[in-house]
Amino acid sequence: MATADLDKKGEALKAQRFQMLEDIAKELSGEVIFPTYFDAVLRLRKVLQDPKQSLADITKAISVEPLISAKLLHLANSVAFNPAGHEVVDLKSAIIRLGLNTVQSAAMAIVMTQLLRAKGMAEFADLTHDLWEHSVRSAAAARILAQSVPRLNPDEAMLSGLIHDLGAFYMLYRATQYDELRHRPDSVKYLIVQWHESIGVALLNALGLPEEIVDATIDHDRIRPTPDPLRSLQDVIYVANMLAGGHFEWLMQDQPGAPENLAALEAKYGHLKPEIEALSQEMRAAFS
Fold it and tell me: What is the pLDDT of residues 25-34, one digit of tens each?
């Protein structure tokens, strides 16, 4: 019998799985508890969304977070955002070049990479690596796809692609707090398959993300006919998730029409993969 099957039948393990889901439900109905560095990005979000804040105010708010400041400068000077090779050396210029939506995406990406290094996450190293790689590729794909869709903001699409699986990151972080789960990645993976989408939607709502972004993440792993043409942010996130070679490919095995629909999606949008990989490499370098 497979280890994963044994895991699912252990009484202590069952109890802790149930307890974790119950604790998450309680937390999401109140105040979400993430590692302290998430507080920084939530504070920045409030500043970035306040129309009364000047560029000087925004620069000052970001400057108190040295890690985020350094990464933003790096990103602003990357090929993706500086094709002409004109280097910026101050934070204000970097913010102007990137734009506020990209600053927000970058700040979120930076705290997500810090989350991967949180205490206890080493037990889930393979899962977190795959999850992060998938998130970066999805963000890159979403930005590139959105460029061809009228009325969509590519930077907002990038943020949406980056956080579409935040529920899975959150579940991994919470799993580190339960002894029976921390040492059984296969069992945690089983929980993520079942719950990451619904928990992710509740989490993004609790964190105050815009409704359009939250809605775009709903059912992103559920196979459907290929959107052609792309008309909405939800279409973009679905295609980006699939083009990014979803680490949840094993979810699709029992979904009706999966091979045909995925083949059609690949035929329509697969030519973008080299461009997606190039942008992904830029993002990895900037956020790591």
Answer: 887 777 666 6
Say how far apart CA 125 and CA 128 lie, in whole Å.
5
Whether the per-residue pLDDT at 287 is higher than 50: the answer is yes
DSSP state of 102: H
More confident residue, 97 or 286: 97
Give 123-126's long-range contacts (Cβ < 8 A, gap of 24+): 123/176, 123/182, 123/183, 123/185, 124/172, 124/175, 124/176, 124/185, 124/188, 126/185
3-class secondary structure, 24: helix
Q: If you ran DSSP here, which 8-state letter would residue 124 be given?
A: G
57-61, 124-128, 261-265: lowest mean pLDDT where?
Answer: 124-128
Tell me if 139 sits within 8 A of 283, measured CB to CB: yes
Closest by CA position to 213, among listed 136, 110, 139:
139
CA 211 to chain CA centroid, nearest Å: 16
Residues 6 or more apart whose CB falls under 8 angstroms from that of 178 comprise 16, 19, 20
Query: How does 214-224 read in b/e, with b if 16+ C-beta sit within 10 Å?
Result: bebbbebbebe
177 CB burial (10 A radius; 0-12, 13-18, 19+) = middle
Taking only the tens place, the pLDDT of each residue in 228-254 is 999 999 999 999 999 998 645 555 556
Tokens of 38: 């998430």
Ordered domains of the chain (ranges, CATH): 1-31+118-288 (1.10.3210), 34-117 (no CATH)
Report the C-alpha gap between 164 and 200 in whole angstroms.
Answer: 8
8 A C-beta contact, residue 63 and residue 71: no
Residue 188 token pair: 């945690």
Biggest CA pair distance of the chain? 62
Amino acid, res. 151 = R
